[in-house]
TrEMBL record:
Pfam families in alphabetical order: V-set (PF07686)
Domain spans labelled Immunoglobulin V-set: 8-100
GO MF annotation: an example: signaling receptor binding
Localization per record: Membrane
This protein's GO CC annotations: cell surface; membrane
PANTHER family, per database record: LYMPHOCYTE FUNCTION-ASSOCIATED ANTIGEN 3, SIGNALING LYMPHOCYTIC ACTIVATION MOLECULE
Gene expressing this chain: Cd58
Organism of derivation: Eudromia elegans
Protein name: LFA3 protein
Alphabetized InterPro entries for the sequence: CD2/SLAM_rcpt, Ig-like_dom_sf, Ig-like_fold, Ig_V-set
Chief place of localization: membrane
UniProt keyword annotations, A-Z: Glycoprotein, Membrane, Signal
Length: 183
């Protein structure tokens, strides 16, 4: 019975996506399938062959076995499998469940005022994890926890704050004036 390696992965609509294949041996044959249909194959001493669903949108690395899909489309959401030679009992068929997600929305920044702090929250509409970062023109005294920032209440209301959200190769940003925190 072959080992099963299954990994859930996601890509962003319109971006390029490379499957995270880790094989530490010299490959002589590679077959990639999408929902059990062959989409790319390669044999030693030859060029990779791509089948219609990937033609002009795929690139196979015959040293690592990894496959890159260019300009992801919604219908690239599927189960992909990599079979390769040399095959032995220790080599699993590598299976990836790829979900193609819409890119994140522009972030929005909201402000809540507590006794001695301003609490800024950055939010974007996205179905996966996002990396958040903040930029302040001159404020240095703040505490950040992912998408939330705590500032002292005595900040200059003319200060501008920028929130950045990033996922994969996509980044969006939004600017906010602290004056909006003070009625």
């Amino acid at each position: 019975v072959a080992n099963i390696h299954c990994e859930e992965v996601f890509g962003i609509l319109g971006e390029n996506y490379t499957f995270p294949v880790k094989i530490n041996e010299t490959l002589v044959e590679i077959i990639w399938t999408k929902n059990k249909d062959k989409i790319a194959e390669w044999e030693e001493q030859s060029q990779p062959v791509y089948f219609p669903s990937l033609r002009n949108r795929g690139s196979l690395n015959n040293e690592t076995g990894s496959l890159t899909i260019f300009n992801l489309e919604k219908n690239d959401t599927a189960t992909y499998a990599l079979e390769y030679l040399p095959f032995d009992e220790n080599n699993p068929v590598l299976t990836f469940i790829l979900t193609v997600l819409d890119p994140p929305s522009e972030p929005t920044i909201s402000c809540n005022v507590s006794d001695d702090h301003l609490v800024l929250t950055c939010a974007a509409d996205f179905k996966g994890p996002l990396a958040y970062s903040w930029d302040f023109s001159s404020i240095t005294d703040y505490k950040q926890w992912q998408n939330v920032v705590f500032l002292r209440k005595n900040v200059d209301p003319s200060e501008k704050v920028t929130c950045f959200v990033e996922v994969s190769q996509t980044a969006k940003r939004s600017e906010f004036s602290l004056a909006e925190c003070f009625p």
